[in-house]
Every structure is written in C-alpha cells, then in structure tokens.
C-alpha cells in the first residue's frame, strides 16, 4: 500500500518584516543620519565661530556713511593672530569702560605713534615721519572734518580709533586708546543687506 505524502513546507531564509518594524527601522536610520550630520556640522561650525569668524550687528550711526545701523557683518578673527593691525582697518573691540559691550571703529593710530587732531585735521607722527603726516581719508570719507583738539602718544600695544561719523561717535577722543587684547577682529564682509554686500579691504593712504 502506498501513501501520498505532502511535501514539506519550505521555511523562508529570513523572517518577514512587518510594516511597523520597517517604519521603526527607517526612523532609527533617519535619526542616526541626522545625528551624524549635526555632529559633523558642529565640529566644523564651532571652531569657525569661536576662533576664525563671527557675525556682528551694527548698532547706531557712528560709522556712517560706510556702515549703517542694522547691518550684519562677518568679523575676521584669525588675521590678527597671524599678522598686525593696520591703519584704516575697521575693527570690533570690547569697550574699555564696559567689556560687555562691543564697539566698531576705524584704526587711525598705531603703537608708538603720536596722534594730533587740530583744525579738523589728523596728523600722524612716527619714526618714518617725525615732522608729521597729514592723514588723507578721502578714499572713504569725503569732506572729513574731525572735531576736537588731541595730542595723544600711543604706548606699545595701543591703538587710536575713530568712528567714521566724526560728529557723532564715542571713540578714542573720549575713552582714549584701546589695547591690543581688547580687539576681537576686523570687519571682513558685509552680509546684510544683500544690496550692500561687500568684502572690506584695508585702505591705502597717499
């Protein structure tokens, strides 16, 4: 007598995945990929933000007509670690009388120089020009008249800074020179508004 034997049901090589398990797997993969992107981005952004560049928001009219209220700038922090502050650089620094505040001004006088302001004009006295040099700022300030009577001798590591809007600026004429450690960096790029997008260069003086 013969018997008909049904073939054994072949088991699949893998367990079937339910729709719920598949969704959970996709969520886990998405979260892991997001975490990797965030960690990688922070590893790049944080050093750049704290050691290379940082944003700065202009408040007030002391740097008009070159910088206006509510403009956003990118400040270059690395240049002064590798090189020197130059005359004409626009710098961001901690206000000497309250380091919690940040000011933006233009560097006029360098360490070791004597700065004289008289009759609305600025004179620079240094080892190269002991007789004094009339500072020509016409490249960035038309019809400049600098108020005040100043005769300031700068020590090593000190800088004399002025706002471009000489009639409305709290600067070295009031609070004196600033020290090298107070300087955060120089204005590098104007990022906003887009209509005034600009990369800043140090002016040359004739």
Automatic annotation (TrEMBL):
Its EC number is 3.4.21.89. It is found in: Membrane. GO terms for biological process: signal peptide processing. The active site is at residues 62, 105. It catalyses: Cleavage of hydrophobic, N-terminal signal or leader sequences from secreted and periplasmic proteins. Residues 32-192 form the Peptidase S26 domain. This is Signal peptidase I. PANTHER family: CHLOROPLAST PROCESSING PEPTIDASE, SIGNAL PEPTIDASE I. Belongs to the peptidase S26 family. PROSITE patterns: SPASE_I_2, SPASE_I_3. It comes from the Bacteria. Keywords: Hydrolase, Protease. InterPro entries: LexA/Signal_pep-like_sf, Pept_S26A_signal_pept_1, Pept_S26A_signal_pept_1_CS, Pept_S26A_signal_pept_1_Lys-AS, Peptidase_S26. One of its GO terms (cellular component) is membrane.
């Amino acid at each position: 007598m013969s018997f008909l034997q049904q073939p054994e049901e072949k088991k699949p090589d893998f367990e079937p995945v339910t729709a719920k398990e598949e969704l959970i797997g996709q969520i886990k993969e998405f979260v892991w990929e997001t975490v990797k992107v965030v960690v990688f981005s922070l590893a790049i952004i944080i050093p750049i933000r704290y050691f290379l560049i940082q944003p700065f928001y202009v408040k007030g009219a002391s740097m008009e007509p070159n910088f206006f209220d509510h403009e956003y700038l990118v400040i270059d922090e690395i240049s002064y670690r590798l090189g020197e502050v130059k005359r004409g650089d626009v710098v961001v620094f901690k206000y000497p009388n309250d380091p919690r505040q940040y000011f933006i001004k233009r560097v006029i006088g360098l360490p070791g120089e004597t700065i004289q302001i008289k009759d609305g004009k600025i004179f620079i006295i240094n080892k190269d020009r002991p007789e004094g040099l009339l500072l020509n700022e016409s490249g960035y300030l038309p019809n400049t008249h600098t108020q005040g009577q100043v005769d300031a001798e700068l020590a090593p590591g000190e800088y004399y800074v002025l706002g471009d809007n000489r009639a409305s600026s709290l600067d070295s004429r009031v609070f004196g020179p600033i020290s090298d450690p107070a300087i955060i960096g120089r204005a590098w790029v104007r990022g906003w508004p887009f209509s005034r997008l600009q990369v800043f260069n140090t002016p040359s003086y004739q």
